[in-house]
Write a structure and sequence with these properties.
Helices cover about 50% and strands about 15% of the residues. It has 2 domains: about 140 residues, Helicase, Ruva Protein, domain 3; about 190 residues, P-loop containing nucleotide triphosphate hydrolases (Rossmann fold, 3-Layer(aba) Sandwich), CATH 3.40.50. By secondary structure, the chain is α/β, with parallel strands linked by helices. The strands form 4 sheets. It has a 5-stranded parallel β-sheet with strand order 2-5-8-1-9. A two-stranded antiparallel ribbon has the order 3-4. A two-stranded antiparallel ribbon has the order 6-7. A hairpin with a 2-residue loop joins strand 6 and strand 7.
């Protein structure tokens, strides 16, 4: 970002009684642990820096993440490693067509010793939940998971139980296999802050992966933080300065997905069944604050918004049959929107 643009942000912050320089210095101090996490993750995860960055964004912005990619791309390893680094309770749920809500949230069982029904907590009672192949589970299971994702609580019998913080659902989807899968309800998909596409590693990275697996002992991560440190960092992330013009830029991007004709994108009008929801606006702002924090900056810049727009919007835009017939994807629409909406 050019010095002139930074100066404009500083002046804007001053007009809003925000000391950008002081905030910037504080964020730089408070975010020092991010480098330690990245260094520790790089010991076990070769490449996939963007995936690791998005996992950190979800953790710091308190948003769930949907990971989509072929098997064997270190999705599970990355999540388990992150949980170990922050000393968080980790739970893995393998979603299958015969899975029941009780298998996820828990159930009431009869205790002969106490001669009464007692609650047996399910695997959802953890900090980091890996919902593996989430689209293989039926609607009742998705409904139970939806309450946990949105309300941070579950209902067993007549009682409601709060889930521990931080609570983060990291769901994986296999884009290759369609047999035996259920399409996720739009209401649930919208609850994911980011949908991250995980791609294959580069050739030199795969060679490093090969050498790593040939070693006598596979590297592991070490615990650096506690869950309380993440909760404290989240409060600091909320203080990252987001200028009003950046806010207008976010809303313009979201509105362009709903009313493309108002932004000179008439050709996409028949391609879009529905545009991004208000959650897209909120999540784009929150994720941008987290990204600025990770970059050790006390303010959000337009490049943060552009970097996150695809992950925040790609699962929130519904396409028509006409778009599918013409091979128009949500990525095409988001690219057109970003190239059209004026950058502040």
């Amino acid at each position: 970002m050019c010095k002139f643009a930074v100066r404009k942000l500083i002046l804007a912050g001053m007009s809003n009684n925000v000391d950008i320089r002081e905030l910037n210095e504080r964020i730089e101090r408070e975010s020092s642990f991010v480098e330690l996490i990245n260094s520790e993750m790089s010991n076990v995860i070769v490449g996939q820096k963007l995936m690791v960055e998005k996992l950190l964004i979800g953790l710091l912005a308190n948003g769930h993440i949907l990971l989509e990619g072929a098997p064997g791309l270190a999705k599970t390893l990355a999540i388990k490693s992150l949980a170990n680094i922050i000393q968080a309770k980790f739970s893995r749920i393998q979603f299958t067509p015969d899975l029941l809500p009780a298998d996820v949230i828990g159930t009431m069982i009869y205790s002969q010793k106490k001669e009464e029904f007692v609650v047996k907590h399910g695997p959802i009672f953890a900090n980091l939940i890996l919902a593996d192949e989430i689209n293989r589970a039926p609607a009742k299971v998705q409904s139970a998971l939806l309450e946990a994702m949105q309300e941070r609580q579950v209902t067993i019998g007549e009682a409601t139980y709060k889930l521990d913080e931080p609570f983060l659902v990291l769901a994986t989807q296999n884009p290759i296999e369609q047999e035996g899968t259920y399409p996720l309800p739009e209401a649930q998909v919208d609850r994911f802050m980011l949908k991250v596409i995980v791609d294959y590693p580069k050739q030199d990275e795969e060679q490093r992966i090969l050498r790593q697996h040939l070693e006598a002992v596979y590297p592991t991560t070490h615990t650096l933080l506690k869950p309380e440190d993440i909760l404290k960092a989240r409060q600091v992330v909320k203080e990252v300065y987001l200028d009003e013009k950046i806010g207008q830029y976010i809303t313009s991007i979201v509105f362009a997905t709903r009313y493309p004709e108002q932004y000179g994108l008439d050709k996409f009008k028949p391609m879009i069944n529905f545009g991004a929801s208000p959650r897209a606006t909120i999540n784009l702002a929150l994720a941008a604050q987290a990204l600025a924090f990770i970059k050790r900056r006390g303010y959000v810049i337009p490049e943060d918004i552009r970097a996150l727009a695809y992950d925040v919007l790609r699962h929130r835009i519904g396409l028509t049959y006409e778009a599918e017939a013409e091979n128009i994807t949500t990525t095409d629409i988001i690219s057109a929107v970003l190239n059209t909406v004026e950058v502040p």
